[in-house]
Amino acid sequence: MNMPWRRAFALSLPVMMGYVPLGMAFAVLWVQQDLPWAYGLLASVVLYAGAMQFLIVGLFAAGADWGAIALATLAVNVRHIFYGLSYPVAALRGHPFGRFYAMFSLTDEAYSLVAQQGEEAEGDLLIALQMLCQSYWLMGTILGLVLGMLIPASVIGFDFALAALFVVLAQSHFYHRDRRLAMLMGLVAIVLALGLFNDQVLSMAIVFFLAMLIIYPRKQHV
Q1: pTM over 0.85
Q2: How far apart are CA 160 and CA 156, in angstroms?
Q3: What region does 48 belong to: left with phi over 0, alpha with psi -120 to 50, or beta?
Q4: Are 145 and 40 in contact (CB under 8 A)?
């Protein structure tokens, strides 16, 4: 294993701990809804959308049309627009496949790992990080499809893996002093959104966070 892949594996271990059980939970839910297992695997290969994959199980089971599915996908994943604004695209110069794959596979957790690299990010490392993250999700999906018929519906706890994963990723950012103000802003934004709105909490939290960034922009040190 060469150096970028070795570093990527070490950095992405927290994601693996979350993605494998989450991928299993998605696949078990898929099988329990009597949906074709091959399509469940295909979803993790060409869709790979985390929370949206859980939502799409319910939409398929309810017989939703493709228009409703497309609208739900847009609503759930619109936040990725903001990720793209700060993604270190310059690191992927000379990687035409890497640019395309980076756009496709940019999940919340992958972005958290990419953001830690800062402006000195290396293209090979970014690609390795995102490919490993998807491989963990695929691993969990395959395990869940195989074991789906054996895991009873009464088994609970898979859903907590995502919350635990975000806690670990947030902790890794907290160690960087210059990122703590942004984390505090994010906390204030989500508290305000939860207190003032019953729905669209995530969207409103993003709005509050952007407003705070405009009011108190990050100081640039020369």
Answers
A1: no
A2: 9
A3: left
A4: yes
Length, in residues, of the chain: 222
3-state secondary structure of 38: helix
Burial of 132 (0-12, 13-18, 19+ CB in 10 A): buried
DSSP letters spanning 123-167: HHHHHHHHHHHHHHHHHHHHHHHHHTTTS-TT---TTHHHHHHHH
Instruction: Quick: pLDDT tens for 96-110.
Output: 888 889 888 888 888
pLDDT digits (tens, 9 = 90+) for 111-156: 888 888 877 788 888 999 999 999 999 999 999 898 877 766 666 6
Q: Which two tokens stand for residue 115?
A: 């953001």
Rounded to the nearest 10 degrees, what angle do helices 123-147 and 96-104 cross at? 50
In whole angstroms, give the CA distance from residue 181 to residue 174.
Answer: 10
